[in-house]
């Protein structure tokens, strides 16, 4: 991966992440606009001859530089709120998956079909295959069918963890004694990687998340033969 790519988002694999990236770009355009404006004003202040040195007030310019930032904030706040509510929406999920944080691994439960439970530990470096990622691959992957609305329930048994997969736009805190809900809709097959995003102890960096997105038939087969 090139250095420049590391500075950008991963490719979106869900509609929500597409929305989040669009919003990021939108906010970034406004920030660039403001930065250039401020730089220009700083430069022109340094260059001018201070002809209005004894000016005490200017009602019109103060009105302008109060109202314009207020309007800009509205242009950021409204789409931000739209996505916030979109993130919280639960759209009649067909599958429910429970992710439970532990120090320092994740365990998963699929209770819609049979009672499927498994732990998901990071693969140690010596067991890695050539095509796997160091510190990112797990021994058991989370299998999720794509184009199927999935509910994610997240909790923890010890301290606060955070279940995060950037390419899906999902980040949910795993708090002990509480179940948080999110939803997943993956729009293509593939492997999607994530990590715990709450400093949760000495092995915080070593409890990654791997999602294997498969088609529904494959998923049903996996459930059947588990
Ligand atoms: Cu953690």
TrEMBL record:
GO terms for cellular component: mitochondrial inner membrane. It is a multi-pass membrane protein. InterPro entries: CcO_II, CcO_II-like_C, CcO_II_C, Copper_CuA, Cupredoxin, Cyt_c_oxidase_su2, Cyt_c_oxidase_su2_TM_dom, Cyt_c_oxidase_su2_TM_sf. Keywords: Copper, Electron transport, Magnesium, Membrane, Metal-binding, Mitochondrion, Mitochondrion inner membrane, Respiratory chain, Translocase, Transmembrane, Transmembrane helix, Transport. Its cofactor is Cu cation. Its main location: mitochondrion. GO terms for molecular function: copper ion binding; cytochrome-c oxidase activity; oxidoreductase activity. PROSITE patterns: COX2 (PS00078), COX2_CUA (PS50857), COX2_TM (PS50999). It holds the Pfam family COX2. Residues 92-225 form the Cytochrome oxidase subunit II copper A binding domain. Gene3D superfamilies: 1.10.287.90, Cupredoxins - blue copper proteins (2.60.40.420). It catalyses: 4 Fe(II)-[cytochrome c] + O2 + 8 H(+)(in) = 4 Fe(III)-[cytochrome c] + 2 H2O + 4 H(+)(out). It is found in: Mitochondrion inner membrane. Residues 1-91 form the Cytochrome oxidase subunit II transmembrane region profile domain. GO terms for biological process: ATP synthesis coupled electron transport. The chain crosses the membrane at residues 20-43, 63-87. Binds a copper A center. NCBIfam families: CoxB. Belongs to the cytochrome c oxidase subunit 2 family. Component of the cytochrome c oxidase, the last enzyme in the mitochondrial electron transport chain which drives oxidative phosphorylation. The respiratory chain contains 3 multisubunit complexes succinate dehydrogenase (complex II, CII), ubiquinol-cytochrome c oxidoreductase (cytochrome b-c1 complex, complex III, CIII) and cytochrome c oxidase (complex IV, CIV), that cooperate to transfer electrons derived from NADH and succinate to molecular oxygen, creating an electrochemical gradient over the inner membrane that drives transmembrane transport and the ATP synthase. PANTHER family: CYTOCHROME C OXIDASE SUBUNIT 2, CYTOCHROME C OXIDASE, SUBUNIT II. Component of the cytochrome c oxidase (complex IV, CIV), a multisubunit enzyme composed of a catalytic core of 3 subunits and several supernumerary subunits. The complex exists as a monomer or a dimer and forms supercomplexes (SCs) in the inner mitochondrial membrane with ubiquinol-cytochrome c oxidoreductase (cytochrome b-c1 complex, complex III, CIII). This is Cytochrome c oxidase subunit 2.
